[in-house]
Structures are given as structure tokens and as C-alpha cells.
Design goal:
The chain has about 210 residues and is an alpha/beta fold. The chain has one domain: Vaccinia Virus protein VP39 (Rossmann fold), CATH 3.40.50.150. The chain is about 30% helix and about 15% strand. It has helices at about 15-20, 85-100, 115-125, 160-165, 170, 185-190, 195-205, and strands at about 5-10, 25-30, 40-45, 60-65, 105-110, 130, 145-150. A seven-stranded mixed sheet has the order 3-2-1-4-5-7-6, with helices on both faces. Strand 1, helix 1 and strand 2 (about 25-30) form a beta-alpha-beta unit. Helix 1 (about 15-20) crosses helix 7 and helix 2 (about 85-100) crosses helix 3 (about 115-125). The chain is globular. The chain starts with a strand and ends with a helix.
Length: about 210
């Protein structure tokens, strides 16, 4: 198996980065925040600084990006019509998303919740795939879109949908029902470990 150079953009948790590192790849996360898992490689700053390669100029083989979804998600589309300045922020967020999707890297995945139509017009296309935590062993429901370039769709590794749907809504939608607070957004942004493992196993094996 080829040892890949992997950039995980807009990730402070280190979850995806560490999944690739554990499988022998050279992975670096990047975020404006410091990493919650500081033992791995992390660049604190703007991801645009490192799209072309690392500090030694070596290019990436694969990039996985988790850009902010605040102004892009279908769940918040109603605020476009009530909050001043929201349209400009939405366009800015969608253009940043498209920049990452079109990054000069051979294989790219960009992750976001289900996107509303206005943002999708700027991005240029729908997600290639929508995955759920319950496809990868987690008894939770949280639809996540994956926009892919040069990568295959993820294959479910441990489908526990039936058991998940048997749970009360508040249990299977733990993230959605999380209590408001200063760290709620961080809880909502962390990639599920089962999905991170599937990315590393399935995309990390591509020659």
C-alpha cells in the first residue's frame, strides 16, 4: 500500500487525521483553532496557506475538507430571508466550499450537511453521496453529504440503521438535540470515528 500524504482541512479534533496516521499515512490537519489532539501534525491557520503542499512544498495525494456549514445548511435557509447580511455570508461560505472542492489536489472529498439550493447554485453541484453514522456502526442519525473528486463513494461498514431507528428521537438525534451552549458547535462538527475509519481504510488504499 502506498503511503499517502493527506491534508485534512478545517479539522481541529484530529479524528480523521489520526485515522489515516494510524494506518501508516502522513496526515496533517489544519484549522484556525489549535488541535484537540496535539500529538499529531497540525497547522493552525488558513487552510488556503497549505493547499499547494506542506511547509517543504511537497504536494498532497488526498485532501478531506470540513468547511463551516453555518450559512450553507438546509436547516438554516430560512434565516437568509430574515437576517441582514446573511446572503453575503452565504455566498462567501459557498465560494470557499467550491475553492476547496477545486483545490489542486488529485483526490478531494468535501463534507457538509445537506446543502440548500442557493448555496448549491454557487458550488455547482449536489453531493455525490449522503452518509449516516448508522452506516458505520454508530446508533445515531445525522445526514452528511460528501462531494467527491477522484474518489469512490464510501461503502457502509456496519449498518445499524434498524437498531438506530428503534431508538427514541432524542437518542438517535443526540447531536441535533444537544443543549445550547458555547461548545455545541464543536460537538456538531466532529467526524464520527466510524466514518473516519472508513475514509482511512477505503480511500487510504487507493494507489
Amino acid at each position: 500500500m502506498k503511503r499517502l500524504r493527506v491534508l485534512v482541512g478545517c479539522e481541529y479534533s484530529g479524528t480523521v487525521r489520526d485515522a489515516f496516521t494510524a494506518r501508516g499515512h502522513i496526515a496533517m490537519s489544519c484549522d484556525t483553532l489549535p488541535s484537540d489532539a496535539p500529538n499529531g501534525m497540525h497547522y493552525q491557520g488558513d487552510v488556503r496557506d497549505v493547499l499547494a503542499g506542506d511547509h517543504d512544498g511537497r504536494p498532497w495525494d488526498l485532501a478531506i475538507f470540513h468547511p463551516p456549514c453555518t450559512y450553507l445548511t438546509n436547516a438554516g435557509v430560512r434565516w437568509l430571508h430574515t437576517q441582514p447580511g446573511r446572503w453575503d455570508l452565504m455566498r462567501e461560505g459557498a465560494e470557499f466550499f467550491r475553492l476547496l472542492l477545486e483545490a489542486p489536489i488529485a483526490r478531494v472529498a468535501v463534507e457538509n450537511p445537506v446543502m440548500h439550493g442557493y448555496a448549491r447554485e454557487v458550488v455547482g453541484r449536489r453531493a455525490d453521496q449522503v452518509v449516516q453514522p448508522y452506516h458505520f456502526g454508530h446508533l445515531e442519525s445525522k445526514a452528511t453529504g460528501l462531494w467527491l473528486r477522484g474518489l469512490p463513494k464510501l461503502v457502509a461498514t456496519d449498518d445499524v440503521k434498524a437498531a438506530t431507528m428503534a431508538l427514541p428521537a432524542r437518542e438517535r438525534g443526540r447531536i441535533h438535540y444537544a443543549s445550547p451552549g458555547p461548545d455545541r458547535w464543536k460537538l456538531r462538527s466532529v467526524t464520527y470515528a466510524g466514518i473516519a475509519a472508513a475514509m482511512a481504510d477505503q480511500w487510504g488504499g487507493i494507489e
